[in-house]
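We modelled the chain as a single entity of 138 amino acids. Its sequence is:
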Amino acid sequence: WNNYFLGCAGCNGAKSDKWPTNGAGYLRPDEGSPETEFQFSKDGTVAVSATASSGAAAETLRDFDLKRKWLVRRRKTHIRKALEGLTDLFEVYELDATVAERLIGNHLQRLAAAENAYSVALQQCASAEWEAFRASRV
């Protein structure tokens, strides 16, 4: 029981019998706001956020090997598809900004839904693209 932690097969395999060394524990997806502890990039990579509140994010990133190649590739694929949908909405923006803003808001909400694979990565990357697009229009 001292090493019990629920994760996917890949994460559990990477973690094996490791346990945090700094006493901070691991981030749990069902407690607090773990989405603020990581920063995802469009290329599928992940890093500890500059605003991370403890060493738990670094321990989780390392011990669960959240940078393993196949996982980064899968995240990148999902992010790319999410951004393609957003790019289509940017074209609508050129025709009707009010309608597009509503549609983009809905799109971002759908991406952040917990049932989506890599929902935090999708939401972070799409929100960053949206903010960059809006800034380019000012």
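As a brief sanity check on the tokenised model: The longest helix spans residues 69-95. The beta strands are 38-40, 46-48.
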